User: What shape does this take?
Amino acid sequence: ATQPGFVALNCDTVKEYVAARPQLAKHVGPAATAATWTVEEVGDGNINFVYILSGPSGQLCLKQALPFVRCVGEGWPLSQDRVRIEAEALVAEAAHCPQHVPAVFHYDARMCIIAMQYLAPPHIIVRKGLIQGLIYPRLADHLASFMAETLFHTSLLALPSDQFKANATRFSNVEMCRLTEQVIFTDPYYAAQYNRHTSPQLDAEVAELHADVAARVAATKLKAKFIQNQEALLHGDLHTGSIMATEETTYVIDPEFAYYGPMAFDVGKIIANLLLCFFALDGHASATEPRSAQRAWLLECVRELWGSFRSRFLALWDQHGSKGDAYHAQLFGSGGGDQGPAAQQAAQAAFMADLWRDALGFAGAVIVRRLVGIAHVADMDSIADADVRAVCERRALRFGRRLLTGPEAVADVAELTQLAEAAR
Ligand code: ADP
Ligand code: SR1
Ligand code: MG
Ligand code: MG
Ligand code: MG
Assistant: This one.
């Protein structure tokens, strides 16, 4: 049901909305100058509408959630509570790494609006920068920090169980999770209504996927983990289209899918999206621009991302783990008697082994869904020649299926990137 009192804005009414609120108008200009402001609707995501207002004092970004999925239309209704989730998640993330999230200025529950810091050029969506051929020297380090800080501090490793459970309830985000359950873990494995793929080139490949019992079972086991494993406040949609960056700065936007879920889902989703770009590069390379340096950097980025995430997360655990209810201070670490340090090491090794295996499985599922499901990636879609695109997509699809069905065969991140190199 539509939020009572909700009105969908357009480029004219968004100006009136901002001009009537001095705490918002101050970012753009005095209300008396509103006639001179410019407004652009820049929403290029699948779900919402995003307006950028510019005036004599600067810029403001305003995001509004309509009661349906933008890329489908009214035929796919979607809870507008996603805006509350996004606003609260941005604030929760900013408590641990304010340098990597846009500041929230205003949240309007009735109008389903968030007004936030405008990320000015040269910030662009990382997926678009990668397609253009850019590399981001700080991206892996910044994302590792974002994930380690947000995932650790919202987990039972850092929180007492009463606070942990209250947070999990506040961020239950049932409807957005159900969308993910459907479009990532179910629909790609049969001929679902909104699926698409490069046809006829990939018809046989998709038929084989739909007949693949092991893939079906693996995706369904991951769906159960996605639903059942409440470990930390996830971003929930951590792909390269949810990151705006320059060479020096990185902002993670769009946490409307945030909920308490398995940490491996965030880790796997971002790795999957970097690998999708890796497999797409052959479709963008030319004799004058072979993309070799970018291709090597993408794999280095995956290695640095996992390595740095792992070491930062474990450092946070050593430093703050005694605050949480998961690993009791009298059993683990320096307070745990003679066996405390060994118990801590054993717990950390087991935790990271599980996280790595599940991240690979989720990465496989995400790669598959972006090639045969409803929502594809521009990395592949922007390859104009369908035959060339299909070659890239086929390699990625085979690689995704392999990760999905056999994550335990990939020992570490060096092996993952070697396998990706060999699969191209
Ligand atoms: P959706 O939920 O529909 O995916 P996003 O939050 O990803 O919407 O925003 C869609 C687009 O709007 C982004 O790809 C980006 O180009 C632009 N955008 C979003 N937030 C900002 C911001 N804070 N500053 C500048 N541009 C933004
Ligand atoms: C209807 S599926 C749309 C997709 O776009 C979002 O960014 C999420 O990834 C979602 O799965
Ligand atoms: Mg988005
Ligand atoms: Mg979104
Ligand atoms: Mg995805």
Observations:
- DSSP finds 15 helices and twelve strands in the chain.
- The pocket of adenosine-5'-diphosphate (ligand 1) is lined by residues 42-48, 50, 61, 63, 102, 116-119, 125, 242, 253-254, 256 (CB under 6 Å).
